[in-house]
Amino acid sequence: MKKLILICGANGVGKSTASKALLAAMEKSAYIDSEYCCAIHPFEFTTETIALFKSNIAALMLNSFRSSSIDAVIFPYGFHGPRQQIFQGVLADLELHKIHYELCPILLECDVEENVRRMQNDGRETDRIERALKNTRHLYDAYDYPRINTTNMTVAETVGAMLSIIH
């Protein structure tokens, strides 16, 4: 069965970095970057942009899952704002189109100091970092997904831990 590997966690925790490295480590896999699905300037969540964002992600997933050359879709994603609602809509679209897959969620986390360091290294502004810490870190407390604390891990070690969860 095909797999939807959901890599989630707070802003700046390393979802994209780990997901790209996971793609390189897995045969017959695809990487879908949600940021490309909503690259609008200026961006704000409205009814129209939420529908567009969901539709773009769903189209990429549907096409990937329909491909015989892809067994796993790697999807790094944060649940802040209306993103949880968007993700549920994407899953509903997969079901509507009778796409059979196994959801393999993995939650990445790191301590606050490491999270700040990573966001600074990404060139994020101080106010954006403060907003991310305040608005996104707590969102994942309620999820019982397998967790990987990447604070003292290399990207390769993180990928190894992710592969052990996936397999």
Layout of strands and helices, then pairs:
Layout (H helix, E strand, L loop, with lengths): L1 E7 L6 H11 L3 E3 L15 H20 L5 E6 L5 H14 L4 E9 L2 H10 L4 H10 L11 E3 L5 H12 L1
Parallel strand pairs: 1-3, 1-4, 2-3, 4-5
Helix pairs in contact: 1-6, 2-3
Please tell me about this protein's structure.
By secondary structure, the protein is an alpha/beta fold. The chain has a single domain, classed as Rossmann fold (3-Layer(aba) Sandwich). It has 6 helices and 5 strands. It has a 5-stranded parallel sheet, sandwiched between helices. It is globular, with a radius of gyration of 16 Å.
Any key phrases for this structure?
167 residues, alpha/beta, Rossmann fold, 46% helix, globular
CATH topology tier name:
Rossmann fold
Q: SSE order in H/E notation? A: EHEHEHEHHEH
Biggest sheet: strands, sense, closure? 5 strands, parallel
Question: What is the highest CATH level, the class?
Answer: Alpha Beta
* Oligomer classification: single chain
Structurally, the number of domains stands at 1
The strand line-up of the biggest sheet is 2-3-1-4-5
Low confidence ranges: none
**What is the assigned CATH homologous superfamily?**
P-loop containing nucleotide triphosphate hydrolases
Shape: globular
Please report the total strand number as a whole number.
5
Q: How many helix segments?
A: 6
Q: Beta-sheet strand percentage?
A: 15-25%
Amino-to-carboxy terminus distance: 12 Å
Kindly state the percentage of residues in helix.
40-55%
